[in-house]
Amino acid sequence: MQEEKLERWSHSHSFGQDHKRAGESRTFLVIALTCSMMLIEITAGILFGSMALLADGLHMGSHAVALGINAFAYVYARKHAHSSRYSFGTGKVNTLGGYTGAVLLAVFAGIMAFESVLRLINPVSIAFNQAIIVAVLGLVVNGVSVFILGDNHSHDHDGHDHHHHDHNLKSAYLHVLADALTSLLAIFALLIGKYFGAIWMDPLMGIVGAVLVARWSLGLLRSTTGILLDEQANDAMLDAARSRIEREPECKVVDLHIWTVAPGVHSAIVSIVAAEAREPEYYKAALREELKLDHLTVEVLRLGDS
Predict the structure, then answer these.
(1) pLDDT at 131
(2) 211 and 91 co-located in one domain
(3) Residue 229: which of 96, 73, 68 has the closest Cα?
(4) The pLDDT value given to residue 221
(5) pTM, two decimal places
(6) Domain's final residue, options 228, 249, 276
């Protein structure tokens, strides 16, 4: 059979993952900014004997590693988008990057909470002026990073599904937002401690920050695990697909699977039983009128066939 005759039925499974995503360049820019600040703080900490600067520099380094995972996910997904090893492309690499970032956020939240509780039990003296300077520097850097990344991991625009996020970008954004929040809470606590002697405010704000970061982490974990485990689309999308097919005379959907294979990309498998069965292409066209489906397989069975 001539190859050109098969072209109308053939299509790529890259689903646009071979294109550079908007979040990739911004993530690399934030990594460069974070690493620069990390080197400045570690160098200053060693030169001036400041444990506060040294500790914050190492903390910056941990987040640089987390952002590096997000950057790697972008590059890997793009470079391997056409690989035949991946049945539905590399779209889930994006989600896996987001999931990994969420796990690291949870670990950071746990460390924050643990250290804060220890300091509540065993308070330590704080060099307030030095610590405030470090916190302000961290807030400025993280504020710029938050602005660069932006919270524009777009939500679904057709109302059918909530899996249209760039989870990788959301993970990177939450990491820098968590740092910015930590710095802001630290400044507040340190000012209270310096002027009112309430040293306990510092670890208390650490616990508050840990709780908020943990909540962000859990939200991201919930949204990414559903995609990684091929969770069914939400009821609105399933109902829309089913009602469109069953609008046809004596036609019934007997098996329906719709799931996310990449950010904003859905695949579906539908089995239909009909008294007067039409060609699968007819039902595919009908479903695509109702829903945005990038990969669709339709099985048509005639009523009465064994």
Answers:
(1) 78
(2) yes
(3) 96
(4) 93
(5) 0.77
(6) 228
pLDDT given at position 185: 85
Q: How far apart are CA 290 and CA 240, in angstroms?
A: 7
108 found inside a domain: yes
The answer on 273 and 187 residing in a single domain is: no
* Residue 160: predicted pLDDT: 38
Count CB atoms within 10 A of the CB of residue 88. 19
Residue at 4 is within a domain:
no
Q: Indicate the number of domains in the chain.
A: 2
Q: Are residues 169 and 217 in the same domain?
A: yes
Report the chain (306 residues): mean pLDDT per 10 consecutive residues. Answer: 52 62 87 88 70 67 86 88 80 90 90 86 80 84 90 42 66 88 85 86 86 90 91 93 92 94 87 91 91 90 72
- Asked if residue 68 and residue 18 are part of one domain, the reply reads yes
Instruction: Give the count of alpha carbons within 13 A of 229, CB side only.
Output: 8
CA distance 227 to 259: 7
Show the domain range for 131. Answer: 9-228
A 10 A CB-CB count for 168 gives 31
Say which amino acid occupies 146: V
Note whether 61 and 146 are same-domain residues: yes
Q: Are residues 209 and 273 in the same domain?
A: no
Residue 286 confidence (pLDDT)? 92
Instruction: Determine the pLDDT at residue 152.
Output: 53
Q: Which two tokens stand for residue 101?
A: 């970032």
In sequence order, which residues have a C-beta less than 8 Å from that of residue 286 and are 6 or more positions away?
Answer: 244, 245, 248
Residue 2 forms part of a structural domain: no
Query: φ and ψ at 293, to 5 degrees?
Result: -120, 120
| Among 70, 67, 69, CA closest to 31 | 67
Q: Indicate if 46 and 184 belong to the same structural domain.
A: yes
CA distances from 231 to 45, 156, 226, 227, 253 (A): 48, 17, 5, 6, 19
Contact between residue 44 and residue 15 where contact means Cβ atoms under 8 Å apart? no
Amino acid at residue number 162: H
Among all chains, which residue has been given the structure tokens 């059979």?
1
